[in-house]
Amino acid sequence: MTDTHVRPVPVPDALSAPFWQAAARHELTLAQCAKCGEVTLPPDVTCPHCHTTEPDFAFVPVPGTGRVRTWTVIRRSFLAGFENPFVLVDVELDGHSDLRIVARLLDGADVPLTIGARVAVEFEDIAPGVAVPAFRLEHGE
Ligand SMILES: [Zn+2]
């Protein structure tokens, strides 16, 4: 029997496993190419910067702060386990303007949002040993 109220849990593969292991410790990491030193997310089989097929990624922790690039309000989710409505933000991480990370905003669907608003990563523990990144607005700037 399938419980339709349970959120789907990420299924790590060999490439992404270190990212999810760090997430479980509430640590946001980016995949750093061993060949060129550039970072990417999510890790792919090739490095998007130098195109090596052996990027041998190391997962380096980042502070997880950034700015809202854009957002959308999800009023009807195609996935179970989400309380609607909720907000997905597209975040530009500090120092990594070429990366985008899309995640839930934990401040609720009615919070006033502006492009460029400061956010910081937090993690939602959704199953034993499984946490997913999300963001929360930083206040008092
Ligand atoms: Zn590279």
How would you sum up this structure, described in words?
The strands form two sheets. This protein has a five-stranded mixed beta barrel. The chain has two domains: 11-62, no CATH class; 63-141, OB fold (Dihydrolipoamide Acetyltransferase, E2P), CATH 2.40.50. The model has no long low-confidence stretch (mean pLDDT 93). The protein has one helix spanning 17-24; strands at 29-32, 39-40, 58-61, 65-74, 86-93, 96-105, 118-127, 130-137. It has one helix and eight strands. Bound molecules: zinc ion.
Describe the structure in brief.
This protein is mostly beta strands.
Number of strands: 8
- Report the C-alpha radius of gyration, rounded: 16 Å
CATH-defined fold name of the largest domain = OB fold (Dihydrolipoamide Acetyltransferase, E2P)
Q: Biggest sheet, strands in spatial order? A: 4-5-6-8-7
Describe the largest sheet. 5 strands, mixed, barrel
Unreliable runs: none
Heteromolecules bound: zinc ion
3D shape: globular
Tell me the structural class: mainly beta
* CATH class designation of the largest domain: Mainly Beta
Strand content: 35-45%
Annotated CATH architecture of the largest domain: Beta Barrel
Helical stretch tally: 1
What's the number of domains? Answer: 2
Mean pLDDT: 93
> What is the rounded distance between the termini?
48 Å
Overall helicity: under 10%
The topology string of helices and strands comes to: HEEEEEEEE
